[in-house]
Protein backbone atom coordinates (compact mmCIF):
# COMPACT_ATOMS: atom_id res chain seq x y z
CA UNK A 1 0.00 0.00 0.00
CA UNK A 2 1.41 3.36 -1.07
CA UNK A 3 1.27 5.94 1.73
CA UNK A 4 1.98 9.65 1.57
CA UNK A 5 4.77 11.08 3.71
CA UNK A 6 3.51 13.94 5.85
CA UNK A 7 6.77 14.87 7.54
CA UNK A 8 10.44 13.98 7.74
CA UNK A 9 11.82 13.79 11.28
CA UNK A 10 14.99 15.37 12.61
CA UNK A 11 18.37 13.64 12.70
CA UNK A 12 21.14 13.82 15.26
CA UNK A 13 24.83 14.01 14.42
CA UNK A 14 26.50 11.18 16.38
CA UNK A 15 23.65 8.73 17.08
CA UNK A 16 24.52 5.22 15.83
CA UNK A 17 21.15 4.90 14.10
CA UNK A 18 20.43 8.46 12.88
CA UNK A 19 23.69 10.43 13.20
CA UNK A 20 24.41 12.19 9.91
CA UNK A 21 28.09 12.56 10.85
CA UNK A 22 28.50 8.98 12.12
CA UNK A 23 30.23 7.15 9.29
CA UNK A 24 30.15 3.85 11.21
CA UNK A 25 26.43 4.24 11.82
CA UNK A 26 23.31 3.69 9.72
CA UNK A 27 22.38 7.31 8.84
CA UNK A 28 18.73 6.30 9.00
CA UNK A 29 16.04 8.68 7.79
CA UNK A 30 12.57 8.74 9.39
CA UNK A 31 9.31 9.64 7.70
CA UNK A 32 5.86 10.08 9.24
CA UNK A 33 3.21 8.45 7.05
CA UNK A 34 -0.40 9.46 6.55
CA UNK A 35 -1.74 6.38 8.41
CA UNK A 36 0.18 7.15 11.64
CA UNK A 37 3.07 4.76 10.93
CA UNK A 38 6.68 5.84 11.22
CA UNK A 39 8.87 4.52 8.41
CA UNK A 40 12.66 4.39 8.46
CA UNK A 41 15.01 3.84 5.56
CA UNK A 42 18.60 2.68 5.96
CA UNK A 43 21.34 0.64 4.36
CA UNK A 44 23.57 -1.51 6.57
CA UNK A 45 27.20 -2.04 5.60
CA UNK A 46 29.64 -4.98 5.73
CA UNK A 47 31.12 -3.51 8.93
CA UNK A 48 27.69 -4.07 10.56
CA UNK A 49 27.91 -7.83 10.01
CA UNK A 50 27.78 -10.68 12.48
CA UNK A 51 28.43 -13.73 10.32
CA UNK A 52 29.69 -12.75 6.87
CA UNK A 53 26.70 -11.89 4.70
CA UNK A 54 24.30 -11.03 7.49
CA UNK A 55 23.74 -7.94 9.56
CA UNK A 56 24.33 -8.26 13.29
CA UNK A 57 21.10 -8.84 15.18
CA UNK A 58 21.97 -6.02 17.54
CA UNK A 59 22.13 -3.61 14.62
CA UNK A 60 18.68 -4.70 13.41
CA UNK A 61 17.43 -4.34 16.97
CA UNK A 62 18.84 -0.80 17.18
CA UNK A 63 17.02 0.15 13.99
CA UNK A 64 13.74 -1.21 15.30
CA UNK A 65 14.29 0.35 18.72
CA UNK A 66 14.73 3.84 17.38
CA UNK A 67 11.92 3.51 14.84
CA UNK A 68 9.40 2.38 17.47
CA UNK A 69 10.72 4.96 19.98
CA UNK A 70 10.34 7.79 17.48
CA UNK A 71 6.81 6.75 16.45
CA UNK A 72 5.53 8.51 19.59
CA UNK A 73 6.65 11.83 18.09
CA UNK A 74 3.96 11.61 15.41
CA UNK A 75 1.36 12.54 18.03
CA UNK A 76 3.69 13.94 20.73
CA UNK A 77 6.52 15.82 19.04
CA UNK A 78 7.98 16.93 22.38
CA UNK A 79 8.12 13.48 24.03
CA UNK A 80 11.51 11.82 24.59
CA UNK A 81 11.87 8.28 25.84
CA UNK A 82 14.43 5.71 26.88
CA UNK A 83 14.01 2.06 26.02
CA UNK A 84 13.20 -0.06 29.07
CA UNK A 85 12.39 -3.32 27.29
CA UNK A 86 12.68 -4.70 23.78
CA UNK A 87 11.87 -8.13 22.41
CA UNK A 88 13.06 -9.05 18.96
CA UNK A 89 12.25 -11.98 16.72
CA UNK A 90 14.73 -12.72 13.94
CA UNK A 91 12.81 -14.51 11.20
CA UNK A 92 15.14 -14.17 8.20
CA UNK A 93 18.78 -13.06 7.77
CA UNK A 94 19.19 -9.34 7.03
CA UNK A 95 21.73 -8.65 4.26
CA UNK A 96 23.88 -5.54 4.06
CA UNK A 97 24.22 -3.17 1.08
CA UNK A 98 20.49 -3.32 0.33
CA UNK A 99 17.77 -0.76 1.19
CA UNK A 100 16.00 -1.70 4.39
CA UNK A 101 12.58 -0.41 5.40
CA UNK A 102 11.58 -0.39 9.05
CA UNK A 103 8.14 0.57 10.28
CA UNK A 104 6.99 1.33 13.80
CA UNK A 105 3.66 2.03 15.46
CA UNK A 106 2.56 2.90 18.98
CA UNK A 107 0.31 0.31 20.60
CA UNK A 108 -0.11 1.85 24.07
CA UNK A 109 0.51 5.36 25.36
CA UNK A 110 0.30 6.14 29.07
CA UNK A 111 1.52 9.08 31.12
CA UNK A 112 5.01 7.64 31.85
CA UNK A 113 5.38 4.62 29.60
CA UNK A 114 4.57 3.92 25.98
CA UNK A 115 4.85 0.74 23.94
CA UNK A 116 5.03 -0.05 20.27
CA UNK A 117 5.83 -2.63 17.68
CA UNK A 118 7.73 -2.69 14.45
CA UNK A 119 9.09 -4.75 11.62
CA UNK A 120 12.14 -4.68 9.40
CA UNK A 121 11.29 -5.37 5.78
CA UNK A 122 13.65 -6.59 3.06
CA UNK A 123 13.57 -5.27 -0.53
CA UNK A 124 11.42 -8.23 -1.67
CA UNK A 125 8.77 -7.34 0.94
CA UNK A 126 9.68 -10.11 3.39
CA UNK A 127 9.56 -9.23 7.07
CA UNK A 128 12.95 -10.27 8.43
CA UNK A 129 12.72 -9.03 12.01
CA UNK A 130 9.86 -8.02 14.29
CA UNK A 131 10.09 -6.25 17.62
CA UNK A 132 7.98 -4.93 20.42
CA UNK A 133 9.37 -2.40 22.86
CA UNK A 134 8.50 -0.24 25.84
CA UNK A 135 9.89 3.19 26.68
CA UNK A 136 9.84 5.49 29.69
CA UNK A 137 9.12 9.15 28.99
CA UNK A 138 11.76 11.45 30.48
CA UNK A 139 12.81 15.06 30.14
CA UNK A 140 15.53 15.38 27.53
CA UNK A 141 17.79 17.00 30.12
CA UNK A 142 17.43 13.85 32.28
CA UNK A 143 18.46 11.64 29.36
CA UNK A 144 21.22 13.38 27.53
CA UNK A 145 24.45 15.23 28.05
CA UNK A 146 25.01 17.63 25.21
CA UNK A 147 28.07 18.98 23.60
CA UNK A 148 26.45 21.81 21.69
CA UNK A 149 29.40 21.99 19.31
CA UNK A 150 28.79 18.48 17.95
CA UNK A 151 25.32 17.40 19.10
CA UNK A 152 22.43 18.93 17.21
CA UNK A 153 18.87 17.85 16.39
CA UNK A 154 17.93 19.14 12.98
CA UNK A 155 15.97 18.49 9.85
CA UNK A 156 18.22 17.42 7.00
CA UNK A 157 16.06 17.60 3.87
CA UNK A 158 17.50 15.88 0.83
CA UNK A 159 16.58 16.07 -2.84
CA UNK A 160 16.04 12.32 -2.83
CA UNK A 161 13.56 12.34 0.04
CA UNK A 162 10.56 10.30 -1.11
CA UNK A 163 7.05 11.81 -1.24
CA UNK A 164 5.42 8.44 -0.52
CA UNK A 165 6.47 4.96 0.55
CA UNK A 166 5.12 1.61 -0.49
CA UNK A 167 4.46 -0.59 2.56
CA UNK A 168 4.24 -4.22 1.51
CA UNK A 169 1.55 -6.40 3.07
CA UNK A 170 2.93 -8.52 5.88
CA UNK A 171 4.65 -11.69 4.70
C1 LIG B 1 20.99 18.67 20.91
C2 LIG B 1 19.78 17.77 20.98
C3 LIG B 1 20.04 16.36 20.60
C4 LIG B 1 18.86 15.55 20.85
C5 LIG B 1 18.83 14.15 20.47
C6 LIG B 1 20.02 13.50 20.03
C7 LIG B 1 19.97 12.17 19.67
C8 LIG B 1 18.72 11.41 19.77
C9 LIG B 1 18.62 10.33 18.79
C10 LIG B 1 17.44 9.73 18.66
C11 LIG B 1 16.34 10.00 19.63
C12 LIG B 1 14.98 9.86 19.12
C13 LIG B 1 14.12 8.93 19.56
C14 LIG B 1 14.71 7.80 20.26
C15 LIG B 1 13.83 6.76 20.81
C16 LIG B 1 14.38 5.56 21.08
C17 LIG B 1 15.75 5.30 20.64
C18 LIG B 1 16.63 4.49 21.53
C19 LIG B 1 16.64 4.99 22.94
C20 LIG B 1 17.74 4.37 23.70
O1 LIG B 1 18.57 3.67 23.21
S1 LIG B 1 17.78 4.74 25.35
C21 LIG B 1 19.12 3.73 25.92
C22 LIG B 1 18.70 2.47 26.55
N1 LIG B 1 17.87 2.64 27.74
C23 LIG B 1 18.34 3.21 28.85
O2 LIG B 1 19.44 3.69 28.92
C24 LIG B 1 17.43 3.20 30.06
C25 LIG B 1 18.24 2.90 31.29
N2 LIG B 1 17.36 2.83 32.44
C26 LIG B 1 17.16 3.89 33.24
O3 LIG B 1 17.74 4.95 33.06
C27 LIG B 1 16.20 3.70 34.35
O4 LIG B 1 15.93 2.35 34.56
C28 LIG B 1 14.87 4.45 34.11
C29 LIG B 1 15.09 5.96 34.12
C30 LIG B 1 14.21 4.01 32.79
C31 LIG B 1 13.92 4.13 35.25
O5 LIG B 1 14.64 4.30 36.45
P1 LIG B 1 13.95 4.94 37.71
O6 LIG B 1 14.88 4.74 38.86
O7 LIG B 1 13.43 6.29 37.43
O8 LIG B 1 12.70 4.08 37.79
P2 LIG B 1 12.27 2.89 38.69
O9 LIG B 1 13.09 1.68 38.42
O10 LIG B 1 12.11 3.39 40.10
O11 LIG B 1 10.82 2.69 38.06
C32 LIG B 1 9.91 3.78 37.97
C33 LIG B 1 8.62 3.23 37.51
O12 LIG B 1 8.74 2.71 36.18
C34 LIG B 1 8.42 1.34 36.18
N3 LIG B 1 9.28 0.63 35.24
C35 LIG B 1 10.61 0.69 35.15
N4 LIG B 1 11.06 -0.09 34.16
C36 LIG B 1 9.96 -0.67 33.63
C37 LIG B 1 9.74 -1.58 32.60
N5 LIG B 1 10.75 -2.08 31.89
N6 LIG B 1 8.50 -1.93 32.29
C38 LIG B 1 7.46 -1.45 33.01
N7 LIG B 1 7.60 -0.57 34.01
C39 LIG B 1 8.83 -0.20 34.31
C40 LIG B 1 8.63 0.88 37.59
O13 LIG B 1 7.86 -0.26 37.86
C41 LIG B 1 8.17 2.09 38.38
O14 LIG B 1 6.78 2.15 38.43
P3 LIG B 1 6.03 2.68 39.75
O15 LIG B 1 6.52 4.08 39.99
O16 LIG B 1 4.58 2.63 39.38
O17 LIG B 1 6.42 1.72 40.80
Automatic annotation (TrEMBL):
Which keywords belong to this entry? Apoptosis, Cell membrane, Cell projection, Cytoplasm, Fatty acid metabolism, Hydrolase, Lipid metabolism, Membrane, Transit peptide
What catalytic reaction does the record list? octanoyl-CoA + H2O = octanoate + CoA + H(+); hexadecanoyl-CoA + H2O = hexadecanoate + CoA + H(+); tetradecanoyl-CoA + H2O = tetradecanoate + CoA + H(+); decanoyl-CoA + H2O = decanoate + CoA + H(+)
Q: Which residues form the Thioesterase domain?
A: 53-127
Gene Ontology terms describing biological process: fatty acid metabolic process
What Enzyme Commission number(s) apply to this enzyme? 3.1.2.2
- Membrane topology type, per the record? Peripheral membrane protein
GO MF annotation list? hydrolase activity
PANTHER family recorded:
ACYL-COENZYME A THIOESTERASE THEM4
Q: Name the protein family.
A: Belongs to the THEM4/THEM5 thioesterase family.
Put simply, this protein is called Acyl-coenzyme A thioesterase THEM4
Amino acid sequence: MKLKILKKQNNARRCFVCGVDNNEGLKTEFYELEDGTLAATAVAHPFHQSYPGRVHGGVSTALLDETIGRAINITEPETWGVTVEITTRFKKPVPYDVPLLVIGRITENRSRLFSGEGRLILPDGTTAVTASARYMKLKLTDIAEFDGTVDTWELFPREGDPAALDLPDEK
